[in-house]
Each structure stands twice: as C-alpha cells, then as structure tokens.
Design brief:
mainly alpha, Ferritin
Length: about 140
C-alpha cells in the first residue's frame, strides 16, 4: 500500500507540470508582447519620427545619467578649503540633474517610443567622456 500512495502524488505532479510550464510560457510570451508593443498614444508621429525622436531623447537621457554620476563623483571626492560649500552645491546640482531623467523618459514613452533599459545601453549611447581618475580636480 505504501508503494501506491507514494506513486499517486508523482502521477498528479507529472500531469500538472506540463500545464504549469505552458501557463508560465504563455505569461512570458504575453509579457514580451506587451514590452515590445508600441505605446498607444495620441501623438500623430510616423513610426520613423517616433524612432528618430526617441533615439535623440535617449541619447540625451544617457548623457543626463552620466552627468548625474559625474556630479556625484565630484561631490563624493571633493576636498580642500571650500569642501563644505562645494559638497553642498554639488549635492544640490546632482538632485536637480537626476530630476531631469523622469520627464525625458516619460516624453519618450508619451510619443510611443521605448526608453533606456540598462547601464550598458547608457554606456553605449553616452556622448560625455568618462573620468576614471583616482582624484577629481
């Protein structure tokens, strides 16, 4: 009897696993479809115009993220007799720069485009030069 009981759950599990996998795959396919679908907007731009405008705005967005990080880098590594004043100034500026990112990204989405999705994409699209020096000057 114990053999029969131990086999019963296995057969149930075997019957439900393919259904669960199919359901999961269906959800993933639906999510991919939504992620790649154009946002339905009232903007009357051609698909080429949306692509061009979104590309330009994403380039700007990448540069804004880079400028934010550069500003924070100076903020974190500031030294000298005016440390406190510059430290506070750079902190305030970095907050203002970061606040620019959401309106830019939302504009891209509003016209039906897609925004930057990763640090790698920022690195590929940035036009500002990196500053990897040990000390900032």
């Amino acid at each position: 009897m114990s053999d029969t009981k131990s086999q019963a759950p296995k057969s149930k599990k075997a019957k439900t696993e393919p259904k669960a996998e199919a359901k999961t795959e269906g959800k993933l396919d639906a999510a991919k479809s939504r992620a790649t679908a154009a946002l339905q907007t009232r903007a009357n731009y051609s698909s080429n115009a949306v692509q061009d405008i979104a590309g330009a705005l994403n380039g700007l967005l990448a540069d804004v993220f880079v400028l934010y990080l550069k500003t924070k880098n100076f903020h974190w590594h500031m030294s000298g007799p005016h440390f406190r004043d510059y430290h506070l100034l750079l902190d305030e500026q970095s907050d203002q720069i970061f606040a620019m990112t959401d309106p830019i990204a939302e504009r891209v989405r509003k016209i039906g485009g897609t925004t930057i999705k990763s640090i790698g994409q920022i690195a590929r699209q940035q036009r500002l030069l990196d500053n990897d020096a040990e000390y900032v000057t």
